[in-house]
Design goal:
Elements (H helix, E strand, L loop, with lengths): L14 H12 L8 E5 L1 H7 L3 H19 L5 E4 L4 E5 L5 H20 L8 E9 L2 E6 L34 E7 L3 E14 L4 E11 L8 H25 L4 E7 H5 L1 H11 L3 H7 E6 L7 H11 L5 E5 L3 H10 L4 E5 L5 H12 L5 E6 L5 H7 L3 E4 L2
Parallel strand pairs: 8-9, 9-10, 10-11, 11-12, 12-13, 13-14
Antiparallel strand pairs: 1-3, 1-4, 2-3, 4-5, 6-7, 7-8, 7-14
Helix pairs in contact: 3-4, 5-7, 9-10, 10-11
């Protein structure tokens, strides 16, 4: 969809809103590139005659999302029935731009069922002077960090050193008793998921890591690990419901815990109070899948749990795994863990996955790996190693 930056007659605004805009201009935020114009015109155009009946609900979602992602001292000023100006004081221009993109992306996904760059109507305010407001469209497809390379080359996907993403402070550690290994230390953290083609955060992933290599895990071990993840997830879902969280959350869930009735019901019962939030925000990443799992059981299990999640992806290791699980289920995406010293093996598996889905996430990538190599291999998303 083609859209143009709207123009405004500031003289038509209320005195209080004109004063707010003037204070934003006087604060120097415009010169620093930290004032943005978000437009809902793409949503309004695609809703057509439904817009008048849905506008109030959409604006409630906009305000919840702005309240969550743009806390004081950030300021937002509604300009008309489809536009809002956001002045970012709490962080740098790069992070402010990412937040604006994700707010618009989440609104498009929620209300239209899809989110493409052409529908993200974002501009940067270039000047606020008296009755004149000038804005320049942001090319969302070319968003890059402050250390970007030349305009023709993709920038490395790295966050600014002075920036801490939301949610990443939620960590947990402890000890878990495993069937064949005894007490084993674990760590849970939340990793930003970087979308490689846009160099922006598109989601967050809950990552559970055992401190010791454990190559023999029983069904009971997988079930216990999934319950640990759910315990970490539930407070986040509570915050999402209360504060209008927008980012998708990728959550590892064991296939053995989902495929048997007793553990599946135990997990779903724990999450039953957050079914609405899970359908909106949680991406289930089914683990311990391989080519030896009966295809019919995969199909049956996914069909039973699909209504509880936004989408479902599978964590695999080899091209044979990909071929086997996709023979029965068209997962929304494929996930893989980084294997030290085996990048060529990963490339082969990623290329096989690319034939099935464009959504390929590679977890725990070491910081030394060039993102150009990751893009070339076929990965679409990554999490960096802790």
């Amino acid at each position: 969809m083609e859209w143009t930056t709207p123009t405004f007659e500031l003289s038509a605004l209320s005195a209080s809103r004109r004063e707010q805009l003037q204070r934003i201009g006087d604060a120097g935020l415009v010169a620093q590139g930290r004032v943005f114009l978000l437009s809902l015109d793409p949503i309004k155009q695609q809703m057509g005659a439904r817009w008048p009946g849905r506008a109030e609900v959409i604006w409630e979602a906009v305000e919840r999302s702005l309240h969550k992602n743009m806390p004081p001292p950030d300021v937002y000023v509604r300009m008309n029935d489809t536009s809002v100006i956001v002045a970012v004081s709490s962080t740098n221009s790069y992070e402010g731009q990412i937040r604006c993109v994700e707010i618009l992306r989440s609104l498009l996904t929620y209300f239209l069922g899809r989110s493409v760059d052409a529908d993200i109507a974002l501009s940067r305010i270039a000047n606020i002077d008296g009755d004149v407001l000038q804005a320049e469209p942001v090319d969302v497809a070319r968003i890059s960090g402050p250390d970007a390379q030349s305009a023709g080359a993709p920038a490395p996907v790295r966050r600014p050193e002075d920036w801490v993403p939301p949610l990443t402070e939620r960590r947990a550690s402890g000890t878990l008793g495993l069937t064949h290994h005894g007490p084993t230390g674990y760590d849970i953290d939340i990793a930003p998921v970087w979308r490689l083609d846009q160099e922006t955060i598109s989601a967050y992933a809950v990552r559970l890591r055992l401190r010791s290599a454990c190559d023999r895990l029983s069904d009971l071990d997988h079930e216990a690990m999934t319950h640990l993840v759910v315990s970490h997830l539930l407070p986040i879902l509570e915050d999402y419901r209360r504060e209008g969280g927008t980012f998708a959350i990728i959550v590892p869930v064991s296939f053995s815990a989902l495929s048997a009735r007793r553990p599946r019901m135990a997990l779903l019962n724990r999450c039953s109070g957050f079914k609405d939030v899970m359908r909106r925000a949680v991406i289930a990443e089914i683990t311990d899948l391989d080519a030896g799992v009966p295809g019919g059981l995969i199909r049956e299990t996914v069909a039973m749990v699909r209504p509880f999640f936004r989408v479902i992806t599978g964590l695999v290791r080899t091209p044979a795994d990909i071929k086997a699980i996709y023979r029965e289920v068209a997962f929304h995406g494929v996930a893989m863990n980084w294997l030290p010293g085996q990048f060529s093996h990963l490339e082969t598996a990623l290329q096989a996955a690319r034939q099935r889905t464009p959504n390929l996430i590679l977890h725990d990538v070491p910081a030394r790996v060039p993102t150009t190599d990751l893009r070339r291999s076929g990965a679409s998303h990554i999490t960096w190693a802790a």
